[in-house]
Specification:
Strand order of the largest sheet of chain A: 2-1-3
Order of helices and strands of chain B: HH
Strand content of chain B: under 5%
Largest sheet of chain A: 3 strands, antiparallel
Number of domains of chain B: 1
Oligomer: heterodimer
Number of helices of chain B: 2
Number of domains of chain A: 1
Distance between the termini of chain B: 172 Å
Helix content of chain B: over 70%
Number of strands of chain B: 0
Shape of chain B: rod-shaped
Structural class of chain A: mainly alpha
Largest interface: A-B, 50 and 32 residues
């Protein structure tokens, strides 16, 4: 718990850990960071989650540097340790994408790689004990700080929406406007029920990016919440402290699976949606 | 808690990162991997080819060896046969030679004994004459009694 002299209640502690560092227009008209949850809530449109963006970009840069360095020095000779590790990931993504996506599009496999590794790195921040960074930042005078970008719904939905835009782009490009609309309107029921079909297929289409973004967000948000609740146990005496320690270790070990799986699911579903966008129905 | 700027910001960052990966990271990495795959495949194929060639040349060497051994055996057999026949010939020749030498020796011996007999006969004739002379104490006329003497010699 952030020990800065004044005592937090459990609810305040949880709320604090779930509040982003928000920069925007303050109620008094000036620009700056919100210093309370009330201030943050009042900011409205002209604001941005600085912590989520910084960690997201930082981890993305880590991914690009790590893979870029290896890719730039990659030779067909005997690979070294790091190159081997990176190539195992690339090979894994290449195989997975090759099984799902059978069309020619040079963008899909690198996109899947970017999503998988980047989302994994963002998820990985969830394993950092929940107080370390927020407490340190608090001591440095920064009121709020969340280090797991994927627990911010805006981050996950931003990626899901971008994937959705790509799906729309390739749907129109591959099938034409008429073809794509036709696919939505004349399926699954006969043409007379076109409006009904359109609503049904439209919902199905919209559900894709929403489920994509919310699945990742939900899993990571819940995971972080449990870490925060476990952290609360550390104030409940020696027995609770020990029990909390065991719980945190167990949950962290289980969470390793979840963060990898969620990163993989996000990447694979994006590829699946893009494959569906490329799929042109057989004309008879 | 929806925040438009974060949402749009993440979308833009996502597009940029994917773009960088598409352009600068994926192609060199995957190309290097494919090239290595190719090299390994070629290497394996070459190894297999070499192994096949080795087996072939082994077989060939064995064949050559087998032929050489058979040839050698044949030569040895022929030589042995030739040697045996040569010994046989030499033996026969030696036998013939020996017989011839024996024959010659025999002839010589008989000739020698004849001659000795002749000499002895002459000597005996002379001795007989000398003996007779002494007995008669008178010269016997060789010319007178040549016929008689020759007869005597022949009788001896």
């Amino acid at each position: 718990m952030a020990s800065d002299g004044k005592e937090f209640s459990s609810q305040e502690y949880v709320t604090h850990h779930l509040t982003n560092l928000k920069w925007g227009k303050l109620p008094d008209g000036s620009w700056g960071f919100a210093h309370s949850t009330e201030e943050a809530a009042q900011m409205g449109l002209l604001s941005i989650h600085v912590d989520a963006m910084l960690w997201s970009i930082g981890l993305g840069v880590v991914f690009l540097l790590l893979f870029g360095l290896v890719a730039r020095r990659a030779t067909s000779g005997v690979p070294g340790g790091l190159q081997n590790f990176i190539e195992v990931i690339i090979e894994f993504i290449d195989t997975t994408v090759g099984e799902i996506f059978t069309y020619t599009n040079k963008m899909v496999a690198p996109m899947a790689l970017t999503i998988f590794v980047w989302v994994f790195l963002m998820n990985l921040m969830d394993l950092v004990p929940v107080d370390w960074v927020p407490w340190t930042m608090y001591q440095a005078g920064v009121e709020f700080h969340r280090i797991v970008p994927t627990t911010d719904v805006n981050i996950t939905m931003g990626m899901a929406a971008t994937v959705f835009l790509m799906v729309l782009y390739y749907s129109f490009r591959r099938k034409g406007v008429g073809g794509f609309i036709g696919e939505l309107a004349f399926h699954p029921f006969p043409k007379v029920l076109a409006p009904f079909n359109l609503v049904l297929e439209g919902v199905t289409l919209i559900a894709k990016p929403i489920s994509l973004g919310l699945r990742l967000f939900g899993n990571l948000y819940a995971g972080e919440m449990i870490f925060i609740l476990i952290a609360l146990m550390y104030t409940g005496g020696v027995l609770m402290f020990g029990f909390g320690g065991v719980l945190q270790l167990a949950w962290a070990l289980f969470h390793v699976l979840i963060i990898t799986l969620q990163a993989f699911i996000f990447a694979v579903l994006s590829v699946v949606y893009l494959a569906q966008a490329h799929e042109v129905a057989d004309e008879h | 808690m929806f925040n438009l700027a974060t949402f749009i910001g993440q979308s833009i960052v996502f597009v940029i990162f994917v773009g960088i990966c598409v352009k600068f990271i994926w192609p060199p990495a995957i190309n290097a991997m494919r090239a290595r795959q190719q090299r390994i495949a070629e290497g394996l194929e070459n190894a297999e080819k070499a192994e096949r060639a080795l087996a072939e040349s082994n077989e060939e060497a064995e064949n050559v060896l087998r032929n050489a051994r058979a040839e050698g055996q044949k030569i040895i057999d022929a030589a042995r046969k030739q040697g045996a026949s040569m010994i046989e010939d030499a033996k026969a020749e030696a036998r013939l030679e020996g017989e011839r030498i024996l024959e010659a020796a025999r002839a010589e011996v008989s000739q020698e004994s004849n001659r000795a007999r002749e000499l002895l006969r002459n000597d005996v004739a002379t001795l007989a004459v000398a003996g007779a002379e002494r007995i008669l104490e008178s010269d016997i006329d060789r010319g007178k009694h040549a016929e008689l003497l020759d007869q005597l010699v022949k009788e001896l």
